[in-house]
Design the sequence.
């Protein structure tokens, strides 16, 4: 499939250094913990040492009496439940009736310094009744006498059950010539952003509350603060300073953010809660520990006939995004292939562990590994090349899946072709010596959610405001959250592109709910697509005013005027070009400073069945990766040497950022493959530290070769789609399938640690299966 | 995170440091680079009200082929070309400790005396309180091997195994004077994860001495861990050997990262002297070492796997040492 | 109460003197007492490398350095490494190569990279990887950081 030659853009499509780079390399970028307020107190939280306990009484009198303590709060002060999804409010700022995991917040203190706060917390006296603890989601599906949350299905800890069936899966399996089955087990993983969670709150005598927080979604925090504290939205101001990484872990409104505000109200003083790294691990909201069972069927010609999927998802103590997770673990198997028959049963079960939530490539990662491994098996059973099987079944542009996802643009075949040839696949697959192998893994991901978490769904998902005054600087206001992905840079570049001005003219303002228009923030890979379209619309509106002004200056029809570089060109008269500032000042004669507003709302998508909106998106990204690995068959230690990453993000608008997202995604995906794991003994997290949570090192990174092959998406801004999450997904199965090619062992349990590799080799040998002569 | 208040003492001589330690017995720790002690202090692990900083004592510095002061930074040893040329195994091991930033402050003495480690010990006060503490800090039971007598915390230094196979000695200063002991004698083979050293209260490690004979030995160090940086050893094998016309002139082998102390296996290597070391003999030795070690489940990798790797790493360390010797 | 003796040292080229209790690490002193917030607190336990500073030119974990032990020494933070005008070659390379994403680990990497290039002006790729293997980055997969350091080495 050949795409039309790309139209030239002045900035977009190039390599645009991040606009905040100079501040970040000098340490001048301001993060929440860098902010000091006069008279600020230190807030700390007391955590439950019990996995599951009824809180009979909490006596804080002694704690309050410690000199230097300003307030000690327990749950009953602000008991209103909240949660990121409006339908599953089961979290509280501080535990109210029960503690639900080791690490659950049961009290909060504000004091003059950290030592005093700790001393106060040590003097809180709790009386509790221990309750049965639930570590394993399998034990939570029936016969539960003391459910962790009230709102689970009766007699269970099941938070959400999803059952979907399209077509006739049983019939398809009866008719199938080939089938494969993978039962996957996935340890939980967590975001491990480098900036710990931190919040500052300050209640002022004018009756307003200001909250600075390391958040990806200032708007959801704003909402939750209002609901729980009972303060109208307009009297709360949420400010998002620089955020040191999120990856989904700063997208829920979090209990400490609300507790911090509550302490500020209580004390009348600014309060900062800065979490220790261990606290961050307890807050978690990372990728769900998951068990899935995936069956795939194909006919004699290699056409995929059906998927039959079950997933059991360990939710931890709260709902968080869990209802979405439960859908995604099924429906995000629907691409990038045609699947005419599809059945899914997913259950998310509460356990007494830190809550799971949304993490980069939320819901699409674990299921994708099992599906792609199953397809590898299927191809092997057929004697087909894995590339051929996938190419044959690829969804076409303009197609609709059986669950009514609309696929607008897809360059998936180009992804496949690019990495097949670049990796030397034909010479390597099954042909490398024992211990060395190549594997293919593919994926797709939503480019923004069509049906977002929205409290007022008739309003746009994204809005951007522009203001230009006589200085000619363009101030951009938006509540999208740059958390390192470079969205401020893209926002500035889009505005500059449309208006023809230099990038340095555009200043993206810090997110501040007092002045920034509502945007649903940075999650579900929505920002480039939605904020990008909104920014473009706002800039177009401004451009209209400036073109009219330039036309008025030259007394020519507007149709003769076009955007040049820092000026407006007049058709047929290069000498008459109007400098940007002249046009601006002309336009300001009647109105003063110019303002413009642009917004984006998705078109209706999806079917009308229950859950039909889950996974619908205005566009999807696609990926095909090849990994090459080398295994030390004596130790099980392996190295991923190269990853060829074929990716379709439509038109890449900032190649530097797209590459950065792909490289970072591969790193995070490799972490989940090679060693990252929230390791528990029962309900107890064993490794709440960056030393024992094994993020890969530079020496473990493969050589990464990126192939951006996307064609313009019809609805994306300048043809773009997401590149922030989709690039993670294909990493896992590419490595898993490469390990199979290397040593003939199927790995269905992640992480694939060296001991598991050795055990796999042992098992294969004990079954008498030779591989590549070994 | 915060440190509990302590008094900081800054002696300028060994005698002064030892005197202070004697006076404050049971209420003080020495602090060298701080990279092991301070994380533990921040987690409120066995905190003492006095710290004696070794920073200002010139005698603890200095390095030559014969002597390395206890306060010598790991990074400086690592980048010392003369040391690396003569003791390649030492350079291997030093370069494998933790991270470059830790090695920049961390000292050789600190690594020899590094606190034993365990999943159930190296945790915050809150974490440990939720479990009811452990033998090694604030509690009376072990969570690795449930019982109340013995601590299984693992010796996790990288430098000791190599210095053991080089027959290093350590100079120790105490209230009753100086003594020089083989490095092996620094560690208490009859102790456990708590009682792990033979140092008397108030005794200070002054320097490491390398005997003349160590210079001809080509040692190698092989470290098992999940990542090529950061991680403490899940197993560390050091081998030093000399070959004479294809026969073993001498061989020494030591293993760290598995038991509560770094252990030398002279009883297994001594019989090999004078033998041509066949693959079968190497394998036999490796298996014999493996049979003597019983890792427990208190680190990231499973004990069965770590034990199995003993055999592989011993073989590989010997092969590399032999190659090094042939150079 | 522990004594709060005066502590004096050179900070970013200038002498400073202030009270400091013994149980205080350099990171807290820099961020809280001296309000130099470019040095970041990521883990407080010596793992993430975000708090790296130079002490007498050596890259050092300020979260594991007792503040009192820098008495009489020279401490350079990211603020001191930054020229009064513009950027250092390492900083410029980080910007140009997109080696920052969230930026929280960046000051630590700049400190480490600066020290590396002073000691070894033309490091190999392997030497760079090794030198930065005590600094955690969760955003970039290290690729652009390594690229930037290589570029800076060429430029220096």
Sequence:
């Amino acid at each position: 499939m050949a795409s039309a030659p790309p139209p030239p853009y002045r900035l977009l499509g190039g390599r645009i250094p991040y606009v905040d780079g100079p501040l970040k390399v000098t340490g001048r970028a301001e993060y929440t913990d860098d902010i000091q307020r006069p008279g600020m107190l230190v807030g700390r939280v007391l955590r439950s040492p019990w996995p599951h306990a009824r809180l009979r009484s909490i006596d804080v009198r002694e704690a309050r009496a410690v000199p230097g303590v300003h307030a000690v709060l327990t749950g009953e002060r602000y008991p209103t439940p909240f949660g990121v999804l409006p339908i599953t409010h089961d979290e509280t700022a501080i535990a109210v009736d029960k503690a639900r995991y080791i690490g659950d917040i049961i009290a909060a203190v504000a004091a003059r310094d950290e030592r005093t706060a700790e001393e106060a917390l040590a003097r809180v006296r709790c009386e509790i009744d221990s309750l049965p603890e639930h570590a394993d989601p399998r034990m939570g599906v029936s016969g539960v006498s003391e459910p962790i949350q009230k709102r689970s299905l009766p007699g269970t800890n099941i938070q959400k059950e999803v059952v979907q069936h399209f077509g006739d899966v049983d019939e398809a399996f009866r008719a199938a010539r080939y089938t494969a089955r993978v039962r996957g087990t996935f340890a939980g993983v967590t975001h491990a952003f480098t900036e710990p969670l931190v919040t500052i709150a300050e209640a002022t005598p004018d009756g307003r509350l200001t909250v600075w927080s390391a958040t990806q979604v200032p708007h959801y925090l704003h909402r939750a603060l209002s609901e729980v504290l009972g303060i109208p939205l307009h009297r709360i101001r949420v400010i998002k300073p620089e955020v040191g990484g999120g990856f989904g872990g700063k997208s829920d409104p979090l209990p400490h953010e609300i507790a911090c505000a509550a302490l500020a109200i209580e004390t009348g003083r600014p309060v900062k809660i800065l979490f220790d790294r261990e606290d961050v691990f307890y807050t978690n909201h990372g990728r769900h520990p998951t068990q899935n069972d995936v069956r795939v069927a194909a006919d004699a010609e290699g056409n995929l006939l059906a998927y039959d999927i079950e997933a059991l998802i360990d939710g931890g103590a709260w709902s968080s995004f869990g209802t979405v997770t439960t859908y995604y673990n099924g429906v995000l198997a629907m691409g990038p292939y045609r699947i005419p028959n599809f059945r899914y049963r997913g259950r998310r079960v509460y356990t007494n562990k830190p809550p799971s939530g949304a993490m980069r490539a939320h819901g699409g990662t674990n299921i994708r590994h099992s599906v792609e491994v199953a397809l590898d098996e299927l191809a092997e059973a057929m004697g087909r090349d894995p590339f051929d099987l996938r190419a044959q079944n690829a969804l076409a542009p303009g197609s609709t899946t059986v669950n009514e996802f609309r696929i607008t643009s897809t360059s998936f075949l180009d992804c496949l072709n690019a990495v097949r040839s670049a990796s030397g696949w034909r010479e390597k697959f099954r042909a490398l010596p024992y211990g060395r192998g190549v594997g293919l893994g593919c994926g797709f991901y939503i480019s923004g959610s069509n049906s977002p978490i929205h409290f007022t769904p008739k309003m746009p998902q994204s809005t951007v405001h522009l203001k230009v005054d006589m200085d000619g600087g363009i101030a951009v206001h938006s509540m999208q959250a740059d958390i390192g992905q470079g969205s401020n840079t893209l926002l500035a570049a889009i505005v500059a592109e449309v208006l023809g001005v230099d990038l340095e003219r555009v200043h993206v303002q810090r997110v501040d709910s007092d002045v920034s228009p509502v945007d649903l923030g940075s999650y579900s890979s929505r920002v480039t697509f939605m904020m990008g379209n909104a920014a473009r619309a706002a800039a177009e509106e401004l451009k209209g005013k400036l073109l009219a002004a330039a036309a008025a200056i030259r007394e020519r029809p507007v149709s003769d005027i076009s955007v040049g570089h820092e000026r407006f060109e007049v058709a047929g008269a290069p000498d008459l070009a109007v400098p940007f500032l002249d046009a601006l000042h002309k336009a300001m004669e009647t109105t003063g400073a110019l303002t413009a507003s642009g917004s984006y709302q998705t078109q209706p998508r999806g079917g009308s069945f229950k859950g039909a909106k889950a996974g619908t998106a205005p566009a999807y990204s696609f990926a095909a990766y090849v990994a090459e690995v080398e295994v030390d068959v004596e130790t099980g230690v392996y190295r991923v040497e190269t990853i060829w990453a074929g990716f379709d993000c439509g038109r890449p608008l900032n190649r530097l950022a797209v590459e950065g997202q792909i490289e970072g995604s591969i790193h995070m995906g490799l972490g989940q493959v090679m060693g990252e794991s929230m390791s528990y003994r029962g309900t107890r997290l064993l490794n709440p530290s960056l030393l024992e949570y094994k993020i890969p090192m530079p020496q473990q990174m493969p050589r990464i070769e990126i192939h951006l092959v996307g064609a313009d998406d019809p609805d994306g801004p300048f043809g773009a789609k997401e590149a922030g999450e989709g690039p993670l997904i294909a990493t896992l199965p590419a490595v898993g399938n490469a390990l199979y090619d290397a040593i003939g062992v199927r790995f269905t349990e992640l992480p694939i640690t060296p001991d598991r590799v050795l055990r796999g080799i042992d098992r294969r040998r004990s079954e008498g299966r030779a591989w590549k002569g070994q | 995170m915060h440190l509990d208040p302590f008094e900081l003492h800054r002696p300028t001589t060994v005698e002064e440091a030892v005197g202070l330690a004697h006076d404050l017995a049971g209420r003080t720790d020495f602090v060298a680079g701080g990279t092991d002690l301070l994380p533990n202090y921040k987690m409120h692990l066995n905190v003492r009200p006095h710290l004696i900083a070794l920073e200002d004592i010139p005698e603890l510095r200095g390095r030559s082929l014969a002597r390395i002061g206890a306060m010598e930074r790991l990074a400086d040893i690592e980048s010392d070309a003369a040391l690396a040329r003569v003791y390649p195994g030492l350079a291997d091991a030093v370069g494998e400790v933790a991270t470059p930033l830790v090695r920049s402050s961390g000292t050789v003495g600190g690594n020899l005396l590094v606190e034993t480690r365990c999943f159930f010990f190296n945790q915050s006060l809150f974490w440990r309180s939720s479990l009811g503490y452990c033998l090694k800090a604030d509690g009376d039971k072990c969570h690795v091997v449930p019982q109340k007598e013995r601590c299984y915390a693992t010796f996790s230094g990288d430098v000791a195994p190599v210095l053991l196979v080089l027959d290093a000695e350590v100079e120790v200063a105490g209230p009753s004077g100086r003594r020089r002991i083989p490095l092996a004698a620094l560690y208490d083979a009859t102790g456990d994860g708590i009682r792990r050293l033979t140092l008397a209260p108030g005794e200070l490690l002054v320097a490491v001495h390398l005997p003349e004979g160590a210079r001809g030995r080509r040692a190698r160090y092989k470290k098992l861990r999940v990542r090529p940086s950061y991680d403490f050893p899940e197993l560390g094998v050091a081998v030093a050997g000399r070959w004479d016309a294809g026969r073993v002139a001498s061989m020494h082998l030591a293993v760290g990262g598995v038991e509560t102390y770094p252990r030398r296996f002279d009883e297994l290597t001594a019989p090999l002297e004078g033998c041509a070391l066949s693959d079968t003999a190497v394998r036999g030795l490796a298996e014999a070492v493996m049979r003597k070690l019983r890792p427990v489940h208190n680190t990231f990798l499973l004990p069965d796997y770590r034990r199995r790797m003993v055999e592989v790493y011993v073989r590989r360390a010997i092969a590399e040492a032999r190659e090094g010797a042939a150079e | 109460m522990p004594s709060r003796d005066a502590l004096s040292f050179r900070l970013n080229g200038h002498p400073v003197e202030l009270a400091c209790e013994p149980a205080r690490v350099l990171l807290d002193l820099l961020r809280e007492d001296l309000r130099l917030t470019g040095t970041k607190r990521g883990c407080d336990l010596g793992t993430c490398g975000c708090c790296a500073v130079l002490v007498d030119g050596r890259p050092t974990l300020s979260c594991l350095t007792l503040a009192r032990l820098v008495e009489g020494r020279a401490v350079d933070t990211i603020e001191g490494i930054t020229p009064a005008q513009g950027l250092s070659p390492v900083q410029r390379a980080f910007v140009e190569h997109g080696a920052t994403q969230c930026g929280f680990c960046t000051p630590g990497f700049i400190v480490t990279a600066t020290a590396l290039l002073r000691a070894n002006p033309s490091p190999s790729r392997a030497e760079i990887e090794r030198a930065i293997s005590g600094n955690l980055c969760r955003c970039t997969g290290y690729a652009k950081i390594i690229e930037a350091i290589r570029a800076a080495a060429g430029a220096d």
Observations:
- Chain B has a mean pLDDT of 96.
